[in-house]
């Protein structure tokens, strides 16, 4: 249940979003947990595993910036109980289910595809947008790309339910076309809400749509991978999309290197190593 200040803030975020703002550099102390938080980009010279360096001061809206100041949150998201996170996610999922911000998507979707997994996940996976299978089943990554992702998850020693999995968009773009910047902007509040509630330590961006939208970047995945970026308190790793792997099996090797890079940062080893 949202408090009045939370409702007011959500309204304000929606207004800004309609005005084209995708990142919020400063929020009042009464901000709810589901708000975008500090995002800093690693300097290219920094060693890949080093902690991320301080970013330049945030720029004001409406120009989105790579660096966004952390609001002082009244409740640290990491202090939310599992039940509270489940409740927050379910409230947000209900809002998403009724969303009509993107007219075309709202009128062509079978259902929204919110996200799935552990509300207290240490690792969050972010993909692009639901495809036909996801649109039918209401769950992200359940088609061919999802089956390949499941194998990668297993190879890391995890189960799907250990992670939290979602997308940049919560509706299927017709014909699986790429999300437009406007659609990604419309859905950003929901993505940031999910990140704020789950509060993962690590985020993996699968493919350029996820990486470019989350990090406000434009360079290729080939150049973004094997480096740590920061979004809020999460360390962010970018790698190739599983659909790309289906078309280019040779890219499985770099993806596996990226997964080992993640596991090493987490102090883990792949089970078979
Ligand atoms: N591709 C994605 O990016 N997300 C899905 O949920 C399915 C396929």
What summary fits the major beta sheet? 7 strands, mixed
CATH architecture of the domain at 84-265, by name, is 3-Layer(aba) Sandwich
Q: What's the shape? A: globular
Please, what is the average pLDDT?
81
Say which molecules are bound, naming each kind only once. Answer: uracil
Number of strands: 7
Tell me about this structure.
With about 270 residues, the chain is of the alpha/beta class. It is built from 10 helices and 7 strands. It has a domain at about 85-265: Uracil-DNA glycosylase-like domain (Uracil-DNA Glycosylase, subunit E, 3-Layer(aba) Sandwich). It has helices spanning about 5-20, 80-95, 105-110, 130-135, 145-155, 180-200, 210-215, 220-225, 240-245, 250-265; strands spanning about 40, 115, 125, 165, 200-205, 230, 235-240. A 7-stranded mixed sheet has the order 1-6-7-5-3-4-2, with helices on both faces. α2 packs antiparallel against α6 (about 180-200). The longest helix is centred in the C-terminal third of the chain and has 18 residues, at about 180-200. The chain is globular and about 45 Å long. The model is unreliable at about 1-5 and about 15-75 (pLDDT under 50). The site of uracil has 13 residues, from α5. Uracil binds near residues 131, 143 and 167.
Key terms for this structure?
single chain, 273 residues, alpha/beta, Uracil-DNA Glycosylase, subunit E, seven-stranded mixed sheet, 10 helices, 38% helix, 10% strand, binds uracil
